[in-house]
Recover the amino acids of this structure.
């Protein structure tokens, strides 16, 4: 077996080739809802990146110390609990981020509205935690993956917001306005990102 | 011309409000505008007077494309003719439907898309696939956003990428016909490909075959060749294996590749015409070519065995064609001058990355689509810098 992929390779793969949003279509709901303005998109993206990077690390620790079959602290196999435990960790962390944003950037807090607490159920974040269990990453790999996935998600939502700002000058047919055209543009984005295939892979 | 004008005068009422055929008024208008300048003039100020309207603009691009079209006929033969017809036909149907439903005019922008699109495809692409691609490109890439001038992607690129991803076996592999050479090239050949489902060429091939059968044994006026023995890998495909074709051959274009992009010199002829007429923005073109050149140079220096030389990369594949004709699309590229440089650098660099490291042999189309996607964000950054600078000056 060849060398395990390094954290830095995983980081870049999570941004470009295995972009959470454009390759796996995770985290679509807030992607579509919060991609109207670049500034809002960037704010949400930053929050998601922070949450992703931290929760992957925390969840990695919890999984390997407690939940896993041959865990360090607890010998019982509690792997089946991982969904509920991961979500609880994410929820707690998001609460923390929410308080933080409210205190330091009230403007962003109101711009994000309900979507800030909803990061909790952003499937990209739970997805990242579950993927690192499936892919059997070690700690640096997990953090690299979480951080890269966050940056990739941010990149996608900011690009989308830019396109949607430009689309204000477009004349979109009535039935396609709003979400439908956003989903179609997402499809084109995903097509473009396929071009990176093969450069880095995980 | 008076005679033609009289015909238009005569049939006009049929297509106007209340006339029998008012439903297809856009079609009438498009044909009339093709012959004469639009009769409607804007009333009252403000208006600028500039001979360079959308129609002239598109005409300039078509003139710029002519060398490539000639090269396509020379190297790959008569099959390019039905390709153009199908491309224009299928795209026009989409344009017409949208124009009828939305009660708008047919814009001239399509004349360019319809000609660029077949130029960037393999010479053996099945015609129905070409139709699907151009319809996808025009519909998803342009019309859904409101038509010419309002699109956020280059429609030809969207169609090309869609085909490359949806039909990989017809878009790469054993599809690259060896180009013609000599005085006549393949001008009199009609090269088709055998598909598992039988000949797909339909009427055109039947007509051509009819001629060739009549010629009775002698090398006929038209020949229909079948593909098996006459394909070979593209220069870019060979480069992945470490073989580099001579740069001069690449520049002249006697290599396999997409039908209109093989000849670097012909693309340059048309491209320089566009630069002189200022239809294509030199900032975009120069920054794409320069960034690709520098990147290729750096890679070539690090490992000349594995990475081709920068001049090779300049003439290989669709880099020149993309840089001159596709990335310069004024609507889907950034509006700020600084943004155009960044856009160009991004396209050139990504194209080189995909060519040298990616799974795809050619990265120009992906990189231009990515450039289109990044364009609004690049613009936004330049706007905010400018606004900040203005605020500081106060």
């Amino acid at each position: 077996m060849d060398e395990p992929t390094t954290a830095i390779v995983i980081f870049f793969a999570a941004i470009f080739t295995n972009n959470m949003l454009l390759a796996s279509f995770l985290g679509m709901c807030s992607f579509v809802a919060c991609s109207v303005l670049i500034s809002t998109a960037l704010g949400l993206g930053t929050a998601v990146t922070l949450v992703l990077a931290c929760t992957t690390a925390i969840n990695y620790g919890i999984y390997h110390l407690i939940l896993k079959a041959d865990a360090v602290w607890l010998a019982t196999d509690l792997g089946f609990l991982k969904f509920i435990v991961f979500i609880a960790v994410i929820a707690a962390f998001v609460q923390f981020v929410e308080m933080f944003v409210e205190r330091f950037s009230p403007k962003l807090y109101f711009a994000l509205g309900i979507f800030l607490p909803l990061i909790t159920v952003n499937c990209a974040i739970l997805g990242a935690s579950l993927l690192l269990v499936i892919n059997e990453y070690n700690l640096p790999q997990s953090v690299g993956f979480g951080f890269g996935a966050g940056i990739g998600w941010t990149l996608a939502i900011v690009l989308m917001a830019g396109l949607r700002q430009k689309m204000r000058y477009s004349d979109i047919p009535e039935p396609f306005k709003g979400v439908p055209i956003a989903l179609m543009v997402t499809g084109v984005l995903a097509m473009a990102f396929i071009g990176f295939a093969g450069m880095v892979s995980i | 011309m008076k005679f033609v004008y009289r015909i238009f005068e005569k049939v006009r009422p049929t297509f106007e409000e209340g006339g029998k055929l008012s439903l297809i008024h856009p079609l009438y208008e498009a044909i009339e505008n093709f012959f004469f300048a639009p009769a409607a003039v804007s009333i009252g100020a403000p208006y600028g007077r500039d001979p360079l309207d959308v129609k002239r603009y598109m005409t300039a691009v078509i003139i710029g494309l002519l060398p490539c079209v000639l090269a396509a006929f020379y190297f790959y033969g008569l099959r390019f003719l039905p390709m153009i017809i199908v491309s224009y036909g299928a795209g026009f149907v989409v344009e017409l439907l949208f124009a009828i439903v939305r009660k708008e005019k047919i814009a001239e922008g399509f004349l360019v898309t319809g000609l660029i699109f077949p130029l960037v495809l393999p010479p053996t692409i099945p015609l129905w696939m070409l139709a699907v691609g151009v319809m996808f490109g025009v519909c998803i890439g342009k019309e859904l956003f409101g038509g010419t001038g309002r699109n956020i992607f280059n429609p030809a690129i969207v169609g090309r990428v869609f085909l490359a991803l949806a039909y990989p076996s017809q878009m790469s592999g054993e599809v690259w016909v060896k180009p013609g050479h000599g005085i006549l090239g393949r001008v009199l050949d009609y090269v088709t490909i055998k598909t598992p489902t039988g000949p797909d060429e339909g009427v055109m091939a039947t007509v051509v075959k009819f001629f060739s059968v009549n010629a009775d044994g002698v090398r006929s006026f038209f020949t229909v060749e079948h593909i098996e023995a006459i394909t070979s890998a593209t220069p870019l495909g060979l480069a992945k294996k470490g073989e580099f074709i001579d740069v001069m051959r690449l520049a002249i274009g006697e290599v396999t590749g997409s039908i209109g992009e093989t000849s670097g010199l012909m693309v340059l002829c048309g491209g320089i015409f566009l630069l002189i007429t200022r239809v294509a923005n030199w900032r975009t073109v120069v920054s794409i070519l320069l960034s690709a050149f520098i990147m290729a140079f750096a890679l070539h220096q690090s490992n000349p065995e594995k990475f081709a030389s920068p001049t090779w990369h300049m003439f290989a594949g669709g880099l020149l064609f993309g840089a001159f004709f596709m990335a310069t699309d004024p609507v889907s590229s950034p509006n700020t001058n600084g943004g155009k440089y960044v856009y160009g650098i991004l396209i050139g660099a990504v194209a080189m990355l995909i060519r040298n490291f990616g799974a795809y042999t050619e990265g120009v189309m992906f990189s231009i689509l990515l450039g289109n996607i990044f364009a609004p964000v690049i613009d936004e950054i330049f706007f905010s810098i400018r606004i900040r600078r203005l605020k500081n000056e106060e």
In short: Strands of chain B lie at 189-192, 223-226. Chain B has four domains: 1-42, 53-182, 194-228, 280-383.
